[in-house]
Design brief:
The chain is 84% helix and 0% strand. The protein has 162 residues and is mostly helical. The longest helix has 67 residues.
Length: 162
């Protein structure tokens, strides 16, 4: 071996020892040689691949959450529409019952029991209407939809940056 080889051999060995942090952007000549000779670059590649896979899994999970939220939103809209239909039907029944009540008040005292029954049904229907009115409004549903659409856009932006 030549004297030059004796000088390079310890340098290469030291470079291999210092190659525990193999970052191609900051590695010098000897560190680069050490990383190439050892498993430094492979380890770094595996670490970065693991981080990328973790980020992709998070993005996939966020996407599934957005899809689930959208499905829930569609179901909520369908429920709101069904409840609005029920509310309209109840309003019609209330109006009909109030008309019946007025007619019964005009009749004789023997019909007082019928009047009380109709009044009770009106009270029950009004309580049901009041309970139905506590449901979310279409405007609130639209706001939730807009928020969900923004989250989906943000998710797509996040996915496209990967």
């Amino acid at each position: 071996m030549t004297p030059r080889a004796f000088v390079l051999l310890p340098a290469l060995l030291l470079a291999g020892c210092s190659a525990s942090q193999c970052d191609p952007n900051s590695a010098g000549l000897f560190t680069g040689i050490g990383c190439s000779m050892g498993s430094g670059y492979t380890d770094r590649t595996n670490t970065l691949t693991g981080e990328a896979n973790g980020a992709q899994a998070q993005a996939d999970q966020a996407y599934q959450g957005a899809v689930s939220a959208q499905q829930s939103d569609y179901q909520a809209n369908a429920q709101v529409q069904a409840l609005q239909g029920q509310l309209a039907a109840m309003n019609q029944r209330v109006n009909a019952d109030q008309a019946n009540l007025s007619a019964l008040h005009a009749s004789n005292a023997a019909q007082a029991a019928q009047v009380a029954a109709v009044q009770q049904e009106i009270n029950q229907l009004q309580a049901q209407i009041a309970a139905q009115q506590n449901q979310p409004s279409p405007q609130e549903v639209r706001q939730l939809q807009q928020k969900q659409e923004q989250e989906e856009k943000d998710l797509l932006n996040l996915s496209s940056q990967m």
